[in-house]
Amino acid sequence: MAEFLAENNPCGQSILRLVSRGNAIIAELLRLKDYIPPVFRLETKQDQQKYGEIISDFSYFKMSDEFDQKIDSNPQLQDLDEEFRENYTEILTRFYLVFESLHKYITDLNRFLDDLEEGLFIQQTLESVLLSEEGKQLMCEALYLYGVMLLVVDLHIEGVVRERMLVSYYRYSAQRSSTESNIDDVCKLLRSTGFTNTSASKRAPNYPEVYFKRIPVNVLYVNMVLGRLRSDDIYNQISAYPFPEHRSTALATQAAMLYICLFFAPSVLHTQTAKMREIVDKYFPDNWVISIYMGITVNLVDSWEPYKAARTALSNTLDSSNVLDIAARYAKRMQKMIPHTQQLLKEGALIEENVLDHVSKVTNVVRECNVTLRWIMLHASSPGPAWEGNKRCKQIRDQVTADAKCNPLQVFELLLNTAQFELKIKDMFKHLLMEKQNKWEKYKKEGVERMMELSEVFSGTKPLTRVEKNENLQSWFAAMGKQIDSLKHEDATASGRKIGQLIQALQEVQEFHQLESNLQVRQFLADTRLYLHQMIRTINIKEDVLITLQIVGDLSYAWEIVDSYTSIMQEGIKKDPSLVIKLRATFLKLSSALEIPLLRINQAHSPDLVSVSQYYSGELVGYVRKVLHIIPETMFGLMARIVSLQTSVIKELPTRLDKDRLREYAQLEDRHEVARLTHSVSVFTEGILMMKSTLVGIIRVDPKQLLEDGIRKELVKHIATALHNGLTFNPKAKTSELLGKLEALGKIMDGYRRSFEYIQDYVNIYGLKIWQEEVSRIISYNVEQECNSFLRNKVQDWQSVHQSKTIPIPKFPPTDTTSVNFIGRLARELIRITDPKLTVYIEHMTAWYDLKTHNEVINLKFFSKITKSVGTAGLTGLDRLFSFMIVTELQNYLNALQKGVLQDKAWLEMFAVVSKGLSPCCNIISNPGRFYSQYTSRAQRVWPQILDRVLKVGQMQLLRKHITCELNISCKFDSKHLVSALQVMNDALLAEIEAHYKEPSKPYPKESNPLLYELSTYLDWTGISNPYTKIYVTTKNLQFFSVLSFLFVVSQLPKLTYAKNVGSLITRRVQDPMDGVPFIVGMQTLLRQFHPEIRNQFLLYLGQYVKSHMEAAISSSSGKVSELPNEVVTTLHFLESFAHYSGISRKTLAAHIPEPILDQYQTLSTS
């Protein structure tokens, strides 16, 4: 038996590695089921419209050329397809690899069988392998696991989704051109079967046998495996279940394997009634719901319905009288076992002596409880989606529930008691096994000492009351001492027999030599007999008991069913938080299920051991968290009431209080209620902390961490919901709801923060730290998701550093067509209410005013309200989102220019003529009004598009400037030392970089050095930055860009006029609205993205424009000018503001425009 798995046996090692791989593939399939990109389901109308033309099922292979051609001929589809490829190739590759490994598994199994048949493994044949115990198990498992893989794929990854993923992978990967690729075979194996895991769906014809036949498996091998599974107890489980009524439970694992393997030989299910009768009588005489792998359950009533022989054979089991008899039997057992286990769990019942004297009885109790639990949990569980619609299944389940009087509470109680009882027995036996050697030696030593003392007593040398010298007894007791000393615990059988004889001899010597009369001698003999009895008990402590307990305590069948008892567990915890201690035993019992998939992986020393253990342990820990989450959930409910009392009921005590009003302010009942609620919170905390640190699989669960994670999860849920609900706006509202919504949200957030501060000491957590970390994480995640719409390579949920499986941030469906979440809605609402065509920005008031009503829309204080509602993290997130929006606007503008205007021959010729006409820039243009207008009028249809983009960029830059200002003020107030340190660090670093550019030998941070990147993040959060000087996009040197920008500005300036009361340019006519400040800021931002030379050229052109108009005005008025022309005044105001926002000095302007003009303009404009 052991030889088959020896390192030097290639046959055994090959099949072991294959089976190990099979278990790892199933774990990977189960892991990936949670990462199927929703887009491949095409469930929403939006997805269908957007991706319907680039995602296809296997119909693609019939018309691949037309499909690809359609995409190639449409630039938009091409761009979308490329973006889709960049975003999903990684996850598609992961899915394809697991699909390919499934195909490789069956091809390797077939190759192994061929090698076995051809005699490649010396002295090994199919028959000889199946005679070996390990060989028999592995050969059966190999076929069974392949069947399970196919069913798991179909169960969790729907056929059409599978096809779409495979087609997408095929289109995007280079594998299709590779000769070694077996992608075609993988597609053939995993094409849709027509199966859907829903109650409404009908079963596909000949499913799953046709699916199982897609890659043929050696018929002889299948038949021999079925033969072994039918006749043998391949895992020797009967020894752990000696009672005949437990046989079906003992063979449950084998029954699951047989159920799967029968689909490889459907003729048995269809026609071979005798074989099916034999199978049902042996494996399914009293059960019809089975667990096939890690809690995946099937109902034979539904599953075997299409197969005549199987259906007929099962009819005896499903006879109503038989179902009634079985259900009543298990109901009776449950009613008996619940009080029995409660009795055994009472203090003092499970002491070592009792357990060791009644090992078989204890094992029987555990066995009986587990068999009862297994049958009731499986047969009374709610049906799976696939067999929910079957009337017969429903009818039988209803009968079982009625006949067995299945009360889920009682089932749960039995599960709790059984798990606790098992855990206590196991812990006791583990302790006894560890102490076995020491105890044996201790008892032996005590026995020998007693015998030697008695020998001395009868020698007459040791005085003992009324004991005469007796040499015979002296030598007999000395011999007995030697006999006891010679006992060895290694040879349990011989030692046990000898101890029995020694006990009898001691009994006889007491009777025959009238030693009973002497109390002390009698006591010595009784003590020795007791020690010998203890030695027998100790020698009987064997590992076999633990192995039996492990086998009968298997709960893998309930891996999924147990979830239906979650609500009962949570209700129990709500009533009594100390229930958590009992639940710990249940979780540990559930973790024993991990041994099934890991056994072969461990035997094969496979590197997959860690990843598979990690997956199943993670799933179980996730379930533990889910159950215990009721504690933080209830705590938050109590905290909400505490906050409500503190904020709206309990009055704040004044500094001075009249004694007459003392009763009024005492509010004893309200304060008592707060104290009671606080006590309840601390009781819940105590409940979870009672659970000791527990190793679940390979993950250690620390109760304190569990509590903190639970509190974080509940906090995240509440805050995310508050932000989502609080920042949803009505697009039809005439006046903005933003201010009111922000104030309401601010109150809600303040309430949560206050309650957190109040409760942190009672639950022993760092409230402020958790609050800041989680709020920051929620905002960052939502900003990331909102920014995805601007990115080509999108950050998926599973790639996000902010999203967590343990403490997930909830995702809400979008409430409008443009924004993904609340941060996007907030940003777009800000943009809407500060629209440059509806408002005027006045810088010295740092506020926006309505263009028509002149009412203030928002001011600088408004941004502090945003801070109160979404915090510093929200404001920084908003700033980041605006940056993305600005980048998108600039990119779209530059792309439109490159693909449109700057590609058009007529435009280029016009720009060339203008450029020639304006050069050199020191020349004065004669008749400037006519010269400039003839060119600006030619581009009338383009200017509005450019104006929209420039105004949007300027508007968002102004919003960014206000945000940085608010961030900086609040940081100086809250953390002045941090601001000072960062400011000094920033100045020092800039000085170093400037020094490096002046003299390259001086140091400069390397690319790998995170200093600049990390410092800039700190600077953004503290508002130590100037958005006006940011470079948003990298640009090429576009020909004629300065000419285009100049003509655009000149065309728009007549729409503006300088308002002295406002101190800036505003729109000339309300009918043609346009705000001056966003226009100027937008233009300076646009020009900053290019080389400074382009901006200088732009200023030169504007200087020439001013001088030419001045010259024309002087010429027309015979050298006397009392007032500057409108064009000059507006342009000079534009230039002054442009210089202010760009950080250009007056000296630079004076280089383009004579200083007297600047001075006269200043005088005339202020007079």
Automatic annotation (TrEMBL):
Domain of life: Eukaryota
One GO biological process term: endosome fission
Residue stretches spanning the membrane: none
GO cellular component: endosome; WASH complex
Family: Belongs to the strumpellin family.
Protein name (Swiss-Prot/TrEMBL): Strumpellin
